[in-house]
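Raw record, unedited: TonB-dependent receptor plug domain-containing protein
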Amino acid sequence: MSSILTVRQSVLAISLAFGASAVTPCVFAADTDSEESTPQVLPEVRLQAERESVGEQRLDKRQIEAMNGIDGNITSLLRINPSVQFDNKQQASATQGELAPADISINGAKFYDNLYQMDGMSLNNDIGPGSNNPASLTTPPSASQGFAVDTSLLCDVTVLDSNIGAEYGRFKGGVVNANTCAPARKLAGQVSVESTRSAWMKYKLSDAQRESAANSATADLQPEFEKWTYRAALQGKVTENFSLIGSFIRKTSEIPLNGYGNGLQSASDANRKVQRRGSDNAFVRGFWSISPGVLADFSLMHAPSDGDYFIANAKNSTYHLKSGGNGLNLGLTHPIALLGNATAEHRLSWNRMDSSRDADATVWKGWRYSSNKNWGVKTGTGATGWSSNEGGYGDVDQEQESAQYQGKLKWESFALLGATHTFQAGLELGTQHSSYQRNTTYEQYTASVNTSTCNMVGGVDTQYCSLATPWNAASNVRGQYLSSRVIYYAGGYELSNKTRGAFLQDDIRAGNVRLRLGARYDSDDLSPKSSIAPRLSAFWDVAGKGTTQVEVGANRYYGRNFFDFYANSKRLALQTKAQTRTLSGGLLKDWAAPEMATNWTWYQLGDMKTPYTDEKMLGVSHLWGGVKWSAKRVLREGRDEIVQHLESAAHYYWDNIGSTDSKVWTLAAETARPLRWGGSSTQVQFAYDHTRTRSSHASYDDTLSNLAGELDDYIYYQGKFVRWIDRPANNYNRPWTARLLLSTDVPAYRLKVDNFFRVRGPETGMVTTGESLMFDGGVATVFKDITVGKSISWDMRVQYALPKTGPGEGFVNLGIENLTNRTNPLYQSATALVYEKGRQFTLELGYRF
């Protein structure tokens, strides 16, 4: 009994010292109480920190289980949060074979403006987070989350969406802070395998998609897929003062597609090809209680992701994309006597992230079909109707390496002038290094022209000329030659940045009123000047009992500078001008010496400032009827947002001319204690938001043009004249969403059932009517709304634990998304309407002890 108490007390001490939100005992389900449990074992201690603000939401382990989505990533958990909006593509029926986490917007901010942390280490990727085209010639796709973290690793996830303290910086949206668990006992483990596939999902496709699905040659329309997830975890206390937790997770997806479009068959190339996606996550974390009050932790993460792709309608066109990487995280907490008693926290982290491509070929040739170029299929009409493309885009390596130190001091509270003060101060130092390397010279040959000879002065062109008669050529034509060339030379560049940050915050309590006064300083080598962000909040405990609290806040958040702004012209500088060759005197001309292109000079850095968001918020929370109620109003003005700006012909600048305005109402309710009926207990969560977001741009690599009048021109929309750049955002802008989560535990039957209901308001997009009106001496184009109906979904998750066998138990988890198989539309554009997926099943089988 005494050893059991020692274990529990040790875990509790670690939790208290690190903060309940940072370290929580990790318990597999087999460790919970049941009739078979040893009577003298105490129940596990669950620490749930009270929310400081209505701008904070914390999901514990049980809620993570309830909200776990099909792909088990962090952002899927945030569907319950009323301040979070998802990318329209996340639920699209046509692309469910993908594994990548969904992009999210918090209170109207851009998807790349959030701060993601795991155990205090940043997960953000600043290598072109807006790049999402897997077939880009120059830039492999990237993502704002550098590591794809599986939710099975996590013990809690906290979202800070408004009224965020000075401790956090370098974001304009919100903070997503995930934490792993501390081991709770001697030894525990778990293994499982999970799967879903196209045969277990009902497709919801538009008429155009339905016609193309069976013959799809593109990952934009995936008629088949099969996903598997393999998980293994082990945790335990090595000694009374040292414990370890480790896990390995492997995710795979296979997406069979046609190699060639339109249902046509190639005579000499594979007509069926498989694209693949994969991600690994090997993770080890340790906790060491060195002495009373002195605690250390470390973690190692190996989390690469990859994908195999091919270029449709082309031979030898396979390429491999790489992302993710490695991370190291060290933490130390200890008391310190500095201007009084204080607790010092140190965190040192390092990570390296990848956004790279390996291609099977480095030369692209755009032939027409002929007897010796006979793998192509008909893709058009006329002389170029049958194409036999071949080759790939070459190898590109992109890497980001970051190191960061974070130090924080928190002093014990003391009385001064009739109030209690709690001071915090912190320092952050970081370095980022980004590199881009085109490893192989890439050559692109196109524009097939008729010829009757491949002879050249001094020889014969056998590489880019063929004497086999191309399809649809005249009777006197013997062959074809490729007449246009562009070269992308091997080469690269490197960019470095050093960041500095500091904050000071005083939490002042006087009676029923609490003031949180803070300021944050940030600077870096890529910003023209440093920034100081005030973070001011006031809280009023109305009755002095903690049941009703009113809060207000006025805060500024500064964002980050991304490497893309500085790198775009450097990538283009590797490119040559397009060259053309012809026949002359019965001979084929040789290629002239390449000349470097000058379009890299079009792209310049303007007088860039650090983007920022000013926030005003008002919130109230109240405990009534056993339910925690909260409501808040958040107003945000995003200014100096960086976006590509076309000032005049061939003169592009990265300028701070972008802006975003959002107004968000939210209402949330959660049961303070479970509702009990019979032998079951049910936790209830409800959340509602009403959101209005206007933005000049969707992403930083959009172009706002002076030539097109986008900056100064007015349009007529919804009965009034508004500037073009003040139009509603075209994504992450559902007008309202209601969410309800019911989490039910039935211990006697070893059963957990979670039901998540979500109703999203009709989505509206803008299209021109073809009409115009005179306004202010100019012409205003008339726009109208195109609205698609509201979306209603019911997701269910059932977890069943088998009776114990030996030291542990087997378990079965069944997930069902869109249980009613409702057809929910998604607005894509004025001419395309697509749909969310229909009913989909996921099955997980496993064993834990």
